[in-house]
Design brief:
Length: about 675
């Protein structure tokens, strides 16, 4: 290893040129990476709703209704005029309204009041619009221009269009503020004005290279696009900090900077690699999810950490040596006090903190598993946004609603009529638009006009559009979807297809909940195995993993005690992210404790260990906290905001357990921690 690192420091200019070329190329490539904002696209290909959507697209030209437009204070002719204008928008495949279900030339008083109120109520008209996925942004903008700000629109297509435009602007702002906050943290925790810029430059190179290399995936999800680069910045920050701190220590004994760097690399490789490897494994656990958002985020983050490690071991040594004179000329006094007193404080309170730690394990675990969840994209935007306010306004007048499309074999209209009657008898099914409902089972298809017939009949299947008075998700919604499937199965066995926003959310729920146990267990098992191999102990990994898992449970128990509903995706993802990102702190402190035990007794080792590692842990932990809280505060996308809040709060819990509980546990179980220490070389920092 020493020979390898000697070659690196001897070819620093060549290494810098290679990384500069990769950086410039990645800057160009990152703009070619497309971003997907539709959660339903990440359902497994074999789920019933995904197969149904594909079948519908094969059999019919139209798309599912994915937007609702409400017009205030309009007459029937005015509503029809709006309908015609919206239908003419490029990207709008279909607009459904009252005239598709009833004869609007007749007096309103002669129509069925329940059916009428689905479309027209108190002078307001509610149109159901189908917008093609490839035209969501311009089509939504055009519809908004037609209806104006006084009217309202909502739905999956609107949500996706808004998310696409708002997230990009918000992420740029969050990235800028994150870098400034991280810069401030680094200034406070380093001893040279040059070192913070040096660290940020190294991380910036790694982040840009990772962003550009995402082109390998073709496209990435909006979650990966929003959180990936910022998380890479926060999570991999400590690798460069570890290296620079060790380099400064080595320079006290070795005058030649090149030799000091080789020594620093040799001594810090163990800690950095073990920290990086556990982080990579934590992220790779997400790749085992059937819900493909997990692999999308997990693979991108794991790749980012690998690139960060390569950057730390190749680019950073070369860069540090090139600017070493500037580091020396820009030294300043320490802004943070020595943490020796803090170390003594931790030693004194270690036993009470262990007692508290043991007491909270079970309640935190139980509370974290008792949360109320939301699964789809229906609640991604709050009422403080325009789409959130529009949604609340439409629901207030017309109630919550959704549309499902059911495909059944064409031909037997009598069976179709029986099915339609059975479906209309189900609670919350407001109306059904189908051939047998519009014309009757006795009327030949040739009696309908070609456009209407094309929407309801294909060569192989008949289409039924069900309007329901339920939201996109919830227990009642999921129960109704299962009832519809069971009813269709009675008449057509498995030869039917059901699609819709609520249907996709139901399948999403079933998919992600089945992923939870598998992902968490494999993440914990893999991290445990890595810790066994790197720490060469069976006992230490138990303490470290239990400590970080308890921090995760505490983090996820907060919404339960605050009676808050949380996104299941955020709940699922944060477990792997927090484990992978913060177990580094536990590894660092444990390695330092074992190193200090070669010189001090267990009580003094605790004091010196806490004093030695607090600055490094605070540097990385505060950066992760700040980045997470900024995501939580600035993002209007509630899924990303909640994930950010979990990341920031989780980093605080992890730092607290590592700094206040873990030292005491190491001291209490000292014999198990150091019993083989004589056969081990000093652990690296």
């Amino acid at each position: 290893m020493k020979t390898f690192y000697t070659k690196i420091v001897s070819h620093k200019v060549f290494i810098l040129i290679c990384f500069l070329a990769a950086f410039c190329l990645s800057l160009l490539l990152r703009n070619l990476v497309s971003v997907n904002y539709d959660l339903n696209d990440y359902l497994p290909a074999d789920t019933h709703s995904t197969v149904s959507l594909q079948k519908m697209q094969t059999e019919f030209d139209g798309v599912l209704p994915n937007a609702r437009v409400m017009l205030h204070d309009v007459s029937i002719p005015e509503a029809l005029d709006y309908k015609e204008k919206i239908a003419a928008v490029d990207g709008v495949a279909q607009v459904l309204w009252l005239d598709d279900a009833a004869d609007v030339s007749l007096p309103l008083s002669s129509m069925d009041s329940t059916a009428l109120e689905n479309y027209y109520k108190n002078g307001s008209a509610l149109l159901s619009v189908a917008i093609r996925n490839d035209a969501r942004i311009p089509a939504v903008a055009a519809i908004r221009e037609i209806i104006g700000e006084d009217n309202a629109m909502t739905g999956a297509a609107v949500s996706t269009a808004v998310a696409t435009e708002s997230t990009l602007a918000e992420i740029r702002l969050i990235a800028v503020i994150s870098v400034l906050f991280v810069l401030l943290i680094l200034i406070l925790t380093t001893r040279s004005w040059m070192e913070p810029l040096l660290i940020l430059a190294g991380i910036g190179v790694a982040v840009v290279i990772n962003s550009g290399s995402n082109l390998l995936f073709g496209e990435i999800s909006f979650v990966t696009n929003a959180a990936g680069s910022i998380l890479q910045l926060a999570v991999s920050l400590d690798y460069s900090v570890f290296l620079i701190h060790r380099f400064e220590e080595c320079r006290k004994d070795i005058a030649d900077p090149k030799e000091a760097m080789v020594d620093a690399l040799c001594k810090s490789t163990g800690s950095i690699l073990s920290s990086g490897l556990t982080t990579v494994i934590g992220f790779l656990a997400l790749a085992l999810m059937r819900f493909r958002l997990g692999p999308d985020l997990g693979l991108a983050l794991a790749k980012g950490i690998v690139i960060s490690l390569i950057t730390v071991f190749l680019f950073m040594p070369a860069f540090i040596l090139c600017v070493c004179p500037l580091i020396d000329r820009t030294r300043h006094r320490a802004f943070l006090p020595p943490f020796h007193r803090f170390g003594r404080f931790v030693r004194r309170i270690s036993v009470p903190f262990i007692f508290v730690f043991v007491l909270v394990i079970a309640p935190a675990f139980l509370a974290s598993n008792a949360n109320a969840f939301t699964y789809g994209a229906a609640k991604i935007f709050g009422t403080d946004t325009q789409i959130g306010a529009d949604t609340a306004e439409i629901d207030d007048i017309f109630g919550e609603s959704d549309s499902y499309v059911l495909l059944v074999p064409a031909g037997n209209t009598a069976t179709q009529k029986q099915l339609s009657d059975a479906l209309q008898a189900l609670p919350h099914v407001k109306s059904i638009l189908s051939f047998v409902d519009a014309a009757g089972p006795e009327v030949p298809p040739s009696y309908l006009d070609a456009d209407t017939l094309a929407q309801l009949e294909s060569a192989n299947y008949s289409r039924m559009v069900l309007s329901v008075d339920l939201p996109y998700e919830g227990e009642e919604t999921f129960s109704l979807i299962q009832q519809i499937r069971d009813t269709a199965k009675e008449f057509y066995s498995d030869d039917y297809y059901l699609a819709g926003q609520g249907v996709s959310t139901y399948d999403l729920k079933n998919t992600v909940t089945s992923d939870m146990l598998k992902v968490n267990l494999l993440a914990v098992a893999a991290v445990f195995l890595v810790l066994v191999l790197t720490l060469r102990s069976l006992f230490l990994p138990v303490i470290l993993v239990l400590g970080i898992e308890t921090a995760i449970w505490l983090n996820l128990s907060i919404p339960y005690f605050m009676n808050q509903e949380i996104f299941y995706l955020a709940y699922l993802i944060i477990s792997s992210i927090q484990l992978g990102a913060t177990v580094d702190y536990a590894i660092l402190l444990t390695n330092r404790y074992r190193e200090n035990r070669q010189t001090f007794d267990k009580h003094q080792a605790v004091v010196h260990t806490v004093s030695d590692v607090t600055v490094s842990i605070l540097t990385s932990g505060l950066a992760l906290t700040v980045v997470g809280l900024l995501l939580g505060y600035f993002s209007s996308n509630q899924l990303i905001a909640q994930l950010g809040l979990f990341i920031g709060r989780g980093a605080v819990f992890s730092m607290g357990i590592v700094l206040f509980v873990l030292p005491g546990l190491l001291s209490v179980f000292d014999r198990l921690v150091i019993r083989k220490e004589k056969t081990l070389p000093p652990a690296g920092h």
